[in-house]
Amino acid sequence: MLNVSDAKKKVLAHLPGSRIEKYVVYKNLFVFQVITSDPQEGHMDPFYSVDRTTGKFEGFPFMLPEHFGPVSELFSKFPNESRPTEN
């Protein structure tokens, strides 16, 4: 099973120049709130996930009704990673 440190490395490898704001564990995923360096993207859709079993990285559909409530609650309950993550 992937640990959070390895998951962070995977996020930053896929999104160079980005900064991880926060993360939570949701189901079998690490869900990251990421601020990218892409001026076109900015703060739009800043959520990405890494599967804890497979290590698969992908965008996370935060706004889907089945995810929005539970993930919002986790982010508010566990406000971690408020500082930049080193590359």
| Radius of gyration based on Cα positions | 12 Å
The total of beta strands comes to 4
Q: Can you list the strand order of the major beta sheet?
A: 1-2-3-4
Class from secondary-structure proportions: alpha+beta
Q: What share of the residues lie within helices?
A: 25-40%
Task: Please tell me the overall pLDDT.
Answer: 83
The count of helical stretches stands at 2
Low-confidence stretches: 82-87
Describe the largest sheet.
4 strands, antiparallel
What does the overall shape look like? globular
Span of the ends, CA to CA: 22 Å
H/E element sequence: HEEEEH
Tally of structural domains = 1
Percent of sequence in beta strands: 25-35%
Task: Report on the architecture of this protein.
The protein has 87 residues and is of the alpha+beta class. It has one domain. 28% of the residues lie in helices and 26% in strands. It has 2 helices and 4 strands. The protein has a 4-stranded antiparallel β-sheet, with helices on both faces. The protein is globular, with a radius of gyration of 12 Å. It starts with a helix and ends in a 10-residue tail after the last helix.
Which structural traits does this protein have?
4-stranded antiparallel β-sheet, 87 residues, 28% helix, single chain, disordered C terminus, 4 strands, 2 helices, alpha+beta
Topology of helices and strands:
Blueprint: H1 4-14, E1 19-26, E2 29-35, E3 47-51, E4 57-59, H2 65-77
Antiparallel strand pairs: 1-2, 2-3, 3-4
In short:
By secondary structure, the chain is an alpha+beta fold. It contains 2 helices and 4 strands; from the N terminus they run αββββα.
